Amino acid sequence: LFRQQERINSQREEIERQRKMLAKRKPPAMGQTPPASTEQKQRKNKTNGAENETCAVAVIYCAEDIIISVFLNCVFLTRFKDHPTLNDRYLLLHLLGRGGFSEVYKAFDLTEQRYVAVKIHQHACREYRIHKELDHPRIVKLYDYFSLDTDSFCTVLEYCEGNDLDFYLKQHKLMSEKEARSIIMQIVNALKYLNEIKPPIIHYDLKPGNILLVNGTACGEIKITDFGLSKIMDDDSYNSVDGMELTSQGAGTYWYLPPECFVVGKEPPKISNKVDVWSVGVIFYQCLYGRKPFGHNQSQQDILQENTILKATEVQFPPKPVVTPEAKAFIRRCLAYRKEDRIDVQQLACDPYLLPHIRKSVSTSSPAGAAIASTSGSSTNSSSN
What we know:
By secondary structure, this protein is α+β, with helices and mostly antiparallel strands.
């Protein structure tokens, strides 16, 4: 944005310079013409040619002045003349992506003078009610929300220049353990925050497509987005023993959901923040091995029909690439089949594999190190990293 503003300022300065040069060429006849004297009238015929020349210069001057003025006023608007402006504030630039019930556009906030991501939802959206209260460096900020009509709704989000983790993995297939661990530490830092606020929140849709790589690389900062399926663990719906009922069974991305989400019975299954822990294990595995641990080549329909996740009692590790035993043990803790045996988010944040004293090479000055260092503090401290 700063570079674009510099280009804008440079072009405006060039236009102003041309305008000043034009002012110096302004013909004297451009001022108000005084009444002609008798002597002047007598010389009129003699000077007719000169006056015509002066007139031509004046016309050229006026034309150039109009052109420069119009260009000065319209520069950088012509490029976007066919783009709609939402809520008299957000200029849509281009489509970033679309899901089943939404589209996301890169846009420009004309009030705050910054790029944003505008998400247009086809139906009334509950996402903003959850997201608007969140404030953490590893979570995309929600700036604004408003209705377009009775059937569509907009949320305005922080814009990240890079791509998501899903795009990165499609391009590179996998990454080093150090890079993957850095990403997981930052995700866990955000999950810790989500479970320390009141009421706590289960994201429920953690997957590479919802993990944004801020600078497009695997070694930088990440931000979690898309709270459309998240669950609020309030006192009315959640208890520490049984968890909460899964009222939206069938929603979500099946490769990243744990077995308890697929249990069918007379009553809805019970879930807790351990759903997100399972998702972390799947994402970490995929980053390391370039494939999902369960149902890798299956469609969501096949996963349901073949009960793939319900049969995922044990995770298997391929011989290549080489991964440390500590990383494999961490994945096993995340992918414990029975939720009673699986660690929760609080235990995940304190897991030995993620603690800085286990791997001295991780600096607390890096995004990953800062994420881990904050796991021993309060949610307030976490949000300050």
